[in-house]
Specification:
single chain; 254 residues; mainly alpha; 3-stranded parallel beta sheet
């Protein structure tokens, strides 16, 4: 079995930034003008000091220069997933999801990697070192090939937007996913992809028409997903660990 993780651009930078400096919990109704005057940025009810972005830029610049040199000297062309894997390796922090993805050789695809702080740093650096190439085609081949080659395919999609469609579209290449769970708060009535129901994806062949009970949960993902994991993957893991310990004890008795 293979694991694939797809993210939007903000998730990549935030994963690294939380290892460099903490964000702060605020409120959804904090005044934007006041925050701006204090060098603070709001993400929902999270407050991110501008200083954190300076730390991120200082951390990322040496990696960009390393990749640029690899391109110029060795002809290596980087894709978003390769860039993200290098970021996970170099952060070397167990609080990072990207670190564990790199450590376990799980590709992280991000077609919108430039939509955020990573893209900002790339933009600034391009005036010093022009011509850095990020090859999206490598990754669309990669995620589609993994979907096509999978014996069974399941989608767990938290949120919406580019990533929701990117994962579903990869499964179109194999005539649909076998299992599907969407978790987001978006409604279908505005025609957005984020709000699209599983049944809409069936019409495109992104979910197999014989898929057993594809589900959409209308809820904030970080509230529900831990409960889903606790009752599925974690329960299975605990069961397997208990069986392993029981087998080991029997072996010792013999």
């Amino acid at each position: 079995s293979s694991g694939i993780n797809a993210e939007y651009g903000g998730a990549i930078e935030e994963d690294i930034m939380k290892c460099l400096a903490p964000h702060q919990v605020g409120r959804f109704d904090f005044d934007g003008k006041t925050l701006r005057s204090k060098g603070l940025n709001r993400i929902g009810n999270l407050i991110v000091p501008s200083k954190n972005y300076e730390l991120f830029e200082a951390w990322l610049l040496p990696l960009l220069n390393f990749m640029y040199d690899e391109q110029k000297e060795k002809g290596k062309i980087w894709s978003p997933s390769k860039i993200i894997s290098l970021m996970g390796e170099r952060i070397n922090n167990e609080d990072s999801v990207l670190y564990w993805a790199w450590k376990n050789n799980i590709p992280v695809f991000c077609p919108a990697i430039t939509d955020g702080a990573v893209g900002d740093v790339m933009y600034f650096n391009s005036y010093e070192r022009e011509g850095f190439i990020v090859d999206l085609i490598q990754d669309i081949r990669g995620i589609n090939r993994m979907a096509v080659g999978a014996e069974k395919s399941g989608m767990i999609i938290l949120g919406g937007g580019v990533i929701k469609h990117h994962i579903a579209n990869a499964n179109l290449m194999r005539n649909g996913a076998d299992y599907t769970v969407y978790i987001n708060t978006a409604q279908p009535f505005d025609g957005s992809d984020s709000g699209a129901t599983p049944d809409e994806a069936v019409s495109w062949g992104k979910i197999k028409h014989g898929c057993k009970e594809p589900v959409k949960i209308y809820c904030e993902a970080t509230l529900v997903f831990p409960l889903v994991v606790a009752q599925t993957f974690a329960k299975y893991h605990r069961k397997k660990m208990a069986e392993h310990m029981l087998t080991a004890e029997k072996t010792q008795d013999e």
